[in-house]
Amino acid sequence: MSTMTASDRGSEGRTASQSDEAVVELSNVEFGYTASPVVEDISLRIDPGEYVAVVGPNGSGKSTLMKLMLGLLRPDEGTATLFGEPSHVFDDGARIGYVAQHASASKEMPITVREVVRMGRFPHVGFGRLSAEDDRIVDDALETVGMTAFANRRVTKLSGGQRQRAFIARALASEADLLVLDEPTVGVDAESVDAFYDLLESLNESGITILLIEHDLSAVTEHADRVVCLNREIYFDGPTEEFVESDALARAFGTAATFLGGN
Ligand code: ADP
């Protein structure tokens, strides 16, 4: 097995069949927790290497859409696939790295950064022990996110930005192809936010697909290549530059929304 790290995972690391396969594909998806749908008529495809942001007002169905994509919810109508398999049966967790809001990270977790990142190797070793090679991959992941110096620190002792980096390193150690981030910079101090988005950008350049749910519209327009603007239905899906020029934002959010004001 190779010791591929995030920094050398380019397109050469992918086989042709992998790169032809959609990462996520939703076709005419509708879903409601009750009788009335909270998302409907959703069709979209995310290809390997894309950097996609999902935006929309509070309650517009962003988290629901993400859960449908990841197979945590099943569509009432339509189909959802993940790496070519129906999302709800997909079980190769190592291919997906999930970074939740900082606020929802457990403050009680009494483990170190290195232990968090080593968890990324568990799907690869089953009940076996981590090998020296696994530990090299862990070290590489720590280095990629700039957390080598904090490897032995407890995650409870980290700043919000550092903690998010540790969770990204865990995804890198698992060699995830898809990184899903749900408002990852909520509660992260302003200086660390820029560095965090720079990190995401370099991971995306190394071939990792990024799906970002974000309320900070300026971050989205600065970093994502493609925007999906949602409010129960898709109001816009296309290149970020076209989103900025379009009236989708005003239609989905109401006229008060601006790119400067975020939410
Ligand atoms: P967003 O992530 O854009 O804020 P959500 O997907 O969380 O939107 O919510 C979309 C709609 O679904 C909202 O009206 C919300 O109240 C409702 N909703 C979300 N989760 C549940 C749930 N578990 N049970 C019932 N209704 C829910």
From TrEMBL:
<dbReference type="InterPro" id="IPR003593">
    <property type="entry name" value="AAA+_ATPase"/>
</dbReference>
<feature type="region of interest" description="Disordered">
    <location>
        <begin position="1"/>
        <end position="21"/>
    </location>
</feature>
<dbReference type="InterPro" id="IPR050153">
    <property type="entry name" value="Metal_Ion_Import_ABC"/>
</dbReference>
<dbReference type="GO" id="GO:0015420">
    <property type="term" value="F:ABC-type vitamin B12 transporter activity"/>
</dbReference>
<dbReference type="Pfam" id="PF00005">
    <property type="entry name" value="ABC_tran"/>
</dbReference>
<feature type="compositionally biased region" description="Polar residues">
    <location>
        <begin position="1"/>
        <end position="20"/>
    </location>
</feature>
<dbReference type="GO" id="GO:0005524">
    <property type="term" value="F:ATP binding"/>
</dbReference>
<comment type="similarity">
    <text>Belongs to the ABC transporter superfamily.</text>
</comment>
<comment type="subunit">
    <text>The complex is composed of two ATP-binding proteins (BtuD), two transmembrane proteins (BtuC) and a solute-binding protein (BtuF).</text>
</comment>
<keyword id="KW-0067">ATP-binding</keyword>
<feature type="domain" description="ABC transporter">
    <location>
        <begin position="24"/>
        <end position="256"/>
    </location>
</feature>
<comment type="function">
    <text>Required for corrinoid utilization. Probably part of the ABC transporter complex BtuCDF involved in cobalamin (vitamin B12) import. Probably responsible for energy coupling to the transport system.</text>
</comment>
<keyword id="KW-0813">Transport</keyword>
<dbReference type="InterPro" id="IPR003439">
    <property type="entry name" value="ABC_transporter-like_ATP-bd"/>
</dbReference>
<keyword id="KW-0547">Nucleotide-binding</keyword>
<dbReference type="InterPro" id="IPR017871">
    <property type="entry name" value="ABC_transporter-like_CS"/>
</dbReference>
<protein>
    <recommendedName>
        <fullName>Cobalamin import ATP-binding protein BtuD</fullName>
        <ecNumber>7.6.2.8</ecNumber>
    </recommendedName>
</protein>
<dbReference type="GO" id="GO:0016887">
    <property type="term" value="F:ATP hydrolysis activity"/>
</dbReference>
<dbReference type="InterPro" id="IPR027417">
    <property type="entry name" value="P-loop_NTPase"/>
</dbReference>
